[in-house]
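Why run this: before we spend reagent on co-expression, it is cheaper to look at a predicted model of the complex and decide which construct boundaries make sense. The entries below are exactly what would go into the expression plan.
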Amino acid sequence: MPSTLRALALVCSLKSSPDPSSSELIARQVLDNLAGHGVEGDSVRVADHRVDPGVAVDMGEGDEWPRLRQKLVEADILVLATPTWVGHMSSIAQRVLERINAELSMTDQEGRPSMYGKVAVVAVVGNEDGAHKIVADCVQALSDTGFTIPATGSTYWNSEAMKPRDYKDLADTPEAVASTTATAARNAAHLAKLLRAQQYPAS
Amino acid sequence: MPSTLRALALVCSLKSSPDPSSSELIARQVLDNLAGHGVEGDSVRVADHRVDPGVAVDMGEGDEWPRLRQKLVEADILVLATPTWVGHMSSIAQRVLERINAELSMTDQEGRPSMYGKVAVVAVVGNEDGAHKIVADCVQALSDTGFTIPATGSTYWNSEAMKPRDYKDLADTPEAVASTTATAARNAAHLAKLLRAQQYPAS
Amino acid sequence: MPSTLRALALVCSLKSSPDPSSSELIARQVLDNLAGHGVEGDSVRVADHRVDPGVAVDMGEGDEWPRLRQKLVEADILVLATPTWVGHMSSIAQRVLERINAELSMTDQEGRPSMYGKVAVVAVVGNEDGAHKIVADCVQALSDTGFTIPATGSTYWNSEAMKPRDYKDLADTPEAVASTTATAARNAAHLAKLLRAQQYPAS
Amino acid sequence: MPSTLRALALVCSLKSSPDPSSSELIARQVLDNLAGHGVEGDSVRVADHRVDPGVAVDMGEGDEWPRLRQKLVEADILVLATPTWVGHMSSIAQRVLERINAELSMTDQEGRPSMYGKVAVVAVVGNEDGAHKIVADCVQALSDTGFTIPATGSTYWNSEAMKPRDYKDLADTPEAVASTTATAARNAAHLAKLLRAQQYPAS
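The model came back. Tokens follow.
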């Protein structure tokens, strides 16, 4: 295992690259903050890949999740970034959670699910409200699957109700958002270091 | 049964009267719009009353829900108004839903639950995001309990993320919010008239 | 417009045909009950079609949503059927909601969104809990988009916690579930008839 | 600071003592497992106390939250136990989250919110589905407020859909539930030890 901590951002915009994405912007901001704590980061736009529906680790020919999964397995920190659609996480974020669900049956030699010891941070953007609910749905699924959620384990931005604007179109990142992003990253890095040094005990 | 349609707003602010309440303001706006469609309205600040925990119609001595319930029984339209706290409906709104849950076993002579034929509109305000999720939780519980939910069955306002402001402190109601409030009220009045004329069939 | 009411079931299983699907089974049961009230029904397994990510009515070449959308436009009642994954609706159900969201800007000559006058019923199955939450998320999105939600606007089955079983593998449909399915269908048919006769007024 | 780790269970049943409570039973099971890891535990039935509505640490005369809060401040692990009503956490659990929300502004000398370093476990029971959604809403609020959520940070039991039974009336705790409870407690104890030794850094 390398000595440096690694983070993977899975960006769940409905749009493929190179379309500008608010989710990618906030994910990038989390990764930049993690870099300041010595964490190496990588980002993947999930819509650029074919991720088949299903709840297995590999859905067979053509399914590109196994490649994304390999990056996840190698990471200490997952940054799950999603837009808000109809008040919910995107269908692509839900697809990712469905695929990660398979990790519950991928256990190590001592019986721990494969995601144990990893930390998750959730980042949500949207032109309308939804962040708290989306964070809720994501952290529940991720804790269930074996991730640990830090204090202040999320960052987000939603526009005012019925006044749609995009995060990527703001002149500046609001200071309170930047501060929350910094806190989430700082806490995630701290927690990932603790868990890297002392993994959860087996049963 | 009186010929005029009646609406009851249950305002689920955490604050008692006469503290100003954003939930009361938006409830009042729904009632004003309903009045324009010939619906008589009444509003109750639930925090002014002792509503005991439980899931029965009457929790016994001191419980004031039965008085509020009587108003609900006489209404054709329920306006459930709640603030957003930690991204959720208020504890008082959830208390109201718990008490309304008892209506499932209060059936008429043909076996229909007591709320059948009534229409519900949900109104949410908050200094942070949460409206879509709160509407979801409320309309699910209310449809389960026998209420019908109109097209555009809710109105709401949330401030921009991490930029807390209160609905009651806005200089003006944003036009898009006023328009949604008007639509929700218009649709609720239309639907309540239809259901008053032709109640759901018994099984 | 034909005189007979029409229903469309969008079955949001993660599995394509001809794999047996619990979501399809419960959707079929709703349609069978609707048929008893004179409603003609059609069912589509969404996973059999390519539904592209996006929030427009037509995402361009190869996108098969426009064909499904045409069926939806012709229907009076939508039956949205979904399994429970990680406690949430499937990624395919969320995809459908994202696409239906575009209907808000498809207005008729009097300015009403295209889904106004249609009724929605939600049907949820799962080998673990989630039905109430999924119904919540679906009915909020559907009411927002212009559907009307009847009293008892959903039917569902979840297995006992941590005791996974599939709805399609039950020896018999539990009587309480069959009764709820019948009620949801009866109420949806009644409401669709009322709204067919008297559409919501324009603003 | 004492050398032994401490846990506090806040039991959010709608019923006061000495009524038997399924929420209390599952909370007790979490505490028993924590005791096996050297964690001293205490349990409070919240309905036995007057917890006033509001979002401040102390709502004034008669408010008993400050006494409960003192126990929380002294604990390393919070076990939040709630029943399922209309598919949601109880109004009492939401009341507790509203009061804990005030901790965001109670910072230590280095600016960390007062709950930083504490670990939370959520325990849900219900005669119908709801656990995953309730866990979601609780862990989001608790992570927001400064708690850390362990891998497998919850335990739960829901009866099969429309087949109401109570957790406290089961002949035996299902083995899968007992195992999940043990895992949640083991992980919480491990994480609390790590955070006790190495608190999150200040900004």
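Residues 25 and 168 of chain B are 7 Å apart (CA to CA). The interface with chain A takes residues 86-88, 128-133, 135-136, 156-163, 174, 176-177, 180 of chain B (CB under 8 Å). Bring this page to Monday's planning discussion.
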